[in-house]
Amino acid sequence: MTDHDRDKQSANDDSRSDVDDAGTNSEATDANQDPGFVAPDVVETPGDEWAEIDVSDTEADRIARRRDREFNTFRERLTDADQFKVEQSVFDDATFAAIYKLVQDGHIAAFGGPISTGKEANVYEARGTDAADVAVKIYRINASDFQQMRSYLEGDPRFDGLGQDKKAIVLAWTQKEFANLRRAMRAGVRVPEPIAVERNALVMELVGLVEERARRLAEVDIENPQTAYEVVQEYMQRLYSAGLIHGDLSEYNMIIHSGELVVIDLGQAVTVHHPNAEMFLRRDCENVAAFFSRQGIETDPEALIETVTEPDPDPSGTLTQPEHSVQTTDDNS
């Protein structure tokens, strides 16, 4: 991080709600533990070695039910903050409790306003306890695209038995994104680093600063599209080698910051053995090929599929990250 970036971060301090009253827990907690994988040697199909995701009540649910004085004070401070006046639709008591628990566990020191809002989730700026900015993604329990979520969940071994319980689906989806980010990182794919997960709240690296945000690939003019295409192709191959398919990859789910291409929104990523894996992979390849074809690159979706699937799925994720800088005409990218 440059001195300029630190100065920018310091300027944001006044816009965040101080949450020190929640206290901290000096002991390591489960919030930043991988809900992810069991040993690869105990499964028959590489890519499916996922531990069952637990959607039972968390400590945040218990905090919300108790509603002790300390939690109520914390909740009132966030509720009264100017940046949350129009954001209350996302924050039920259990969501406030999830943020409270993340503060107690030492993952959040100050909470800021929204970076982006969507039908399924809002993303907020926050200050981590190591003085670095982080992003907090909060999924809505009553997500409007609930049925679309199910198309990604059905057939995934991590979600067997969830049924039609909306709360269980959303909590599992949040843990799924955390686990997918962890796996992608291990495979050498540049993604926002996952930090912690609690109930329907996911804490992760904030790529760029709020004032100089990372730009979506669709928003920038790429000076070296061939290099960008090669990076995306390699990322897709690495994901597949680690047993994952993004499932919604396009120029809108990749961002550029300081010459670095970053893949985002891995909540819907599926294992290579998902019953719809082939369909999701083909759609990803068609989207990527179409975008780079518009950039003047000769692409072929079928050839891209062949390249991506060339290695056998390997859950170890031992590949290293490619060293390619994607150049744009926007200095803030």
Task: Describe, in plain words, how this protein is organized in 3D.
The structure is a single chain. This protein has helices at residues 3-12, 59-66, 69-80, 93-104, 146-153, 166-186, 225-241, 277-294, 301-308; strands at 17-18, 110-117, 121-127, 133-139, 194-198, 201-205, 215-216, 244-245, 254-257, 260-263, 270-271. The chain is an alpha+beta fold and 333 residues long. The protein has two domains: 3-205, Phosphorylase Kinase, domain 1 (2-Layer Sandwich); 215-308, Transferase(Phosphotransferase) domain 1 (Transferase(Phosphotransferase), domain 1, Orthogonal Bundle). Helix 3 crosses helix 4. The longest helix is centred in the middle third of the chain and has 21 residues, at 166-186.
Summarize the structure.
The chain has 333 residues and is of the alpha+beta class.
Topology, please?
Layout: H1 3-12, E1 17-18, H2 59-66, H3 69-80, H4 93-104, E2 110-117, E3 121-127, E4 133-139, H5 146-153, H6 166-186, E5 194-198, E6 201-205, E7 215-216, H7 225-241, E8 244-245, E9 254-257, E10 260-263, E11 270-271, H8 277-294, H9 301-308
Antiparallel strand pairs: 1-2, 2-3, 3-4, 4-6, 5-6, 7-9, 8-11, 9-10
| Oligomeric state of the chains present here | single chain
Enumerate the strands of the largest sheet in spatial order, edge to edge or round the barrel: 1-2-3-4-6-5
Mean pLDDT: 77
Which regions have little confidence, pLDDT < 50, spanning 5+ residues? 1-15, 24-49, 317-321
Supply Rg.
20 Å
Name the CATH superfamily classification of the largest domain.
Phosphorylase Kinase, domain 1
Overall geometric form? globular
CATH topology of the largest domain: Phosphorylase Kinase, domain 1
Helical amount among residues, as a percent range?
25-40%
